Each structure stands twice: as C-alpha cells, then as structure tokens.
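**Archive record**
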Amino acid sequence: MLLFLVFILLANFSIGFILSRIIGKGPPPGSPERFPVSVQKYILSRIGDPADTNAVRIISDELKVNFRIETSEINWTNDESIPGVSRLLGEKDFRADEQNFIVRMKGRPFFVNKTDGGYIIFSPFMPRDLINETNVVIAVVIIITILAVLLYFALSWILSPIKKLSEGVELISEGNFDNTIIVDRKDELGNLAASINEMKENISEMIKSKETLLIDVSHELRSPLTRIKLANEFIDDPKIHNKILDDIKEMELMITELLETYRMEYEQRKFSFERTDIVKLVRDVIAKFENQDIKFSSEFAVKEILIDRRKIETVFRNIIDNAVKYSEGKSVGVDIYERNDFNDRISVSVKDSGRGIDEEELGKIFEPFYRIDKSRDKKIRGYGLGLSLVKKILEGHNAEIEVKSRKNEGTEFIVTFKNESID
C-alpha cells in the first residue's frame, strides 16, 4: 500500500511539474484579470469599423490577443480555436440584446462586440495555448511507464523472498529436510525464513530420533523372534503351531519392511546400476507368485535399461504383491510397453481388479505406515511401508510412478523409466 501511495504521489507530482513548465507561472498580460473595459475600447478603436485586418495583426502581436472577425464583408481569424458566433449562440452567457459582453466557453473567456456589420470576437492569450497536447500525452506516458517499471522492480525486490519461502516449504512438505531457505534480509521476511529453517531442523531431529528408535527396536526384535520360532517347533498341536508361525511371519515382514525402508532412506545414493533386461526381470518377479492369476504381456522380447536390478525387483515385487492382495482372487495384469506420449519412454503397468482406492487417498498411499484398509484386516498383510519404499527406489532411478484407480473397478500402477535409462 505504501508503494502504491508513493507511486500515485510521484505520478501526480511529475505530471504537475511538466504542465507547470510547459504552461509557465501565472496569467500573462492580457488575461481577463488584466483586461479592463478601457483596453477593450482601445482595441476596438484601433481596429476601426469596418475592421482593418492589418491593424488587427499589429494589435494581436502587441497585446497577445487573438481575434475572429465576422461581418458581412470579412470572415477572418488568426486563431482557429476561437469559436464563431454560431457556436457561441448556444452558450448561456451569450447576450443578443447587449452591445458588449463576455461568453465563457469551456472555461475560456471570449469578448464579443457587436458592430454595424457583424461581430468582433477576441480572446486574450491563455496559458493553455502553449500546450502541445501530443507532447503532453507522450511525456505523461513516459513518466507513468518509468514509474511503473520502478514500482515493478521495487515489488520484485521486496517480494522475492516469498518465492524462496514457498519453494522451501514445498520441499519440507515433501519430506526434504536437507534444503535450507536462504533469505539475506533483516526484515520480517528474513525473520520468517529463519524461523522456518529452525522449525525444519527441529522437525528433522524429531523424525530422526523416532526413526532411530524404531530401527533399534526392529533390530532387537529379531533375536526374540528367532527364539520364539525355535520354541514353536516343539509345540505338538498343529493348530497352535501354525497360528504362532503366522504371527511370527507377520512380525518378520514388518521388521523387514522397516529395515529396508531405513536402508533406502540413508543409502539412497548407493545404487548399483547395470544394463538389465526389464522383460526378464518382471517375468522372474511374477514367477515367485505361485498359484496366482497374473497375465503378462510385453511389446518387447528383450528390452535393456540401466537400473539397480535388486532394488527394481523390490519395486515390482511390492506392487504386484499389493495387486494380488487387493484383487481378492481376481486376475492381475502386467504389461510392458513403449509410451510415445512420453517421448518413447518404457512403462510397466500393473493392474488389478480389486476394490479400488478413493480419490482423496491416492495422494497418501506412498506415505510410510499409511494403509487403505483401516481395519487392519489380517488377510491383507503389510504395514504401509511397501509403497513408501517403492517411491524412494524410483526417485533414486529418476523414474516416475502414476496411479489410476476407480472405486470397485480396480487400480493401475504405471512405472515409467525415462530416456536416460533406456538403451
């Protein structure tokens, strides 16, 4: 608001200054305030009746007065801006029954004098006569443009930290706590950036502490689980034995997911990239799902891409495992194809025929520990870490994952490898 107020004041001051320089200061000699009746009579006597145009020109130069003469014999003017009688007739100041009178038209006085043969109209030289309207318009446009440019740069400088703040907050919301918002300012925006950085550090420390605790507990759980598994072998009742074994497997799955997620979080750059046939890799992953209805198709017999084989196996194992679990016995489709709409990228689609995912949940499924099944159905194992791990692995490969889903119709996961990964 202060900037706009300053802008308006500067614009008004600049325009007023230009007009004052063009017009000059104060009314010149011959203005209505300095044009008494005696001077008017003197002018008429010099002009004569009938009017002498040569005398009119001399008086015009001497007194700075402009004339229009309209008689039966003469129709003459030295200033086309002076209106004729026909135009002045429509003004309220026009007095047809008087000999001499003043008509004001658009704020300018015109002295009208009747003669035997017509009218002599004259007007003193006005400051506005000095104004060249074209030059004034050009000057005003230039001034407004310069002030607008200055205002733009001033606003850009003042508001430039907001873009950095927005980008920094967006990175924090995505879980990136390594980014520091740099705003070299001592004003409120600089203080805000410092506060956000401090908040980010505190949140990062809290998350790391919780993750460390979680990982430590997961490591420590392996030993008692091993002892329980060993002790379970001595239980003779098959029903009890199998129930304990299922619980152990469920806990081992959770611990494995936790530790794998932890390793991906802190070893993201430790990828072993190699040329790998993506078609064979996906076939090998599907082969591990015995007795499952998985239909596979591929546009290629062989297609090599640059990936970390072990980690990409984990990606497709988790995605296909989810598809099988949520299909509830229905078929799952896996398809490898080239996407021309993505500049000839290679995509792998995994599509199930399950319950689908609500639209409001699609943006959350890659968050750690998030599960669509809020009831924790024992038939559907997992702790919401599989897709979080998938996301981290694909980010390390600079690959993309897209999710399409319709309620009660199924869900499709599309993994797309960019051009730099393709041979």
